[in-house]
Amino acid sequence: MNRVAKKILAAVAAVVSLATLTGCGTSSAETSGPKITIGIKYDQPGVGYKEGDNYSGFDVDVARYVAKQLGYSEKQIVWKEAPSAQREALLQNGDVDFIIASYSITADRKKVVDFAGPYFVAGQDLLVRSDDTSIKSAKDLNGKNLCTVSGSTSAQVIKDNFAKSVQIMELSGYAECVTALISGTVDAVTTDDIILAGLAHAKGNGLLKVLGQPFTKETYGIGVKKGDTQLISKINAALKKMVDDGSWNKALDSATGGTGYTPNKEWNPPKNFDAENSDETVRQ
Amino acid sequence: MQEMMTLLSNYNVPAAFWVNVQLTLWSALFSLILGVILVMMRISPVGSLRGFAVAFVEFFKNMPLTIIMVFMLLGVFVQLRFQFSSTFSTNFYWLAITGLSLYTSAFVCESLRSGINTVPLGQAEAARSLGLSFFQTAGLIILPQAFRGSVAPLGNTLIALLKNSTVAAAASVATETSTLMKTMIEYNASMIIAVFLIFAIGYVILIIPIGLLTTWLSNKLAVRR
Question: Same domain for A174 and A205?
């Protein structure tokens, strides 16, 4: 090895050791011991939500339970935001150990990541104002205003299948949609039923209700790095235990309680943890 | 390559780009008109007009576009109930154009002002001594030369405007490119790189000719002194 190469190597080693030192500095401020990093949503009340230093929602409760079964205490969990567009990258790069972020299992996503679960089976539904009796199904949306988040095709599904003359407003988040719904700018918000129920629970103050007629089938899975079958079977065992010992029902109730919402009985709680694909065919 | 062909056949990407081009053309038109008015206010002999133009330009130049767009939607429409049309999509489209035009007009005004600085002071003095009014001086002597001197900065403003038109998503224009890109990523997670490449290449194809044209025009039109 010549001298220049040695110098470069020394410089690299110095930088790397500095980087590890700073790494030590930040982690020692928290707790010692092994950590598990879990990707969740930060902006879906009732599903995955961050408020100050508190994390709440159904996904978060499932994540805590699974982490506990894997041998990690609450303090050993590092939460990381997993926005929809970044979920696959976070798993592929190993930035997170697994992701619970209203992550629908689809054939396309299975090409790049693997799924445990499903831990919940949701379906696209509508959130409306409780005193609005004019909307009883998606077909009643003709001439009404509908809100969804930009980049989602949920509203287009309704326009194509149920109500040709519905008007669509796209906002950056579901919380903004709820504000628009309460103020009367829009008449309904659409996405998966559990997200809507969580919104009604967290933001509705009893003013909002979920229609309760899901017309698609979204199987929510726990995303893990492709090929990690060992982790998948551990997570599935944890999920089975969660359903069996009643923690699953308790978590769902604390996320959506008081809104009159019940998930589709035929599908929930899930019995087979076989990573079944979502069925986005619309049932009329 | 195979992936890009699949994506292009499943999604109408050209239609989304066309929406951005339309947003750009309308906003370019309105911001040019507004920019000319602003720059005339800035060189006018009336102090209050100059002050207003300075305040307007500084406000919109320093305000992030996303905030203007969100304000157009949540402030102007949802709170103040102002709407261009009772059809949502038309309404959001014009709200977005309004936001883009207000924002871009500040930059048009600054570009034109840089052009005005290339016109020697003697020209304005000569025009005035000939007895031309303010509007005659501005319209016949100053602005024509200023335009010819500010082709390059105006071209850069146009390029920025085309790219900024993707922020229209914040004003709920759902058919434009950044929204389509989000949808494509959501449903084609295995082809994220191809999705990015499609939009990157699309914008490069649109923008390179604008750059070439403005460089050529600015060489051709510049007033040789």
Answer: yes
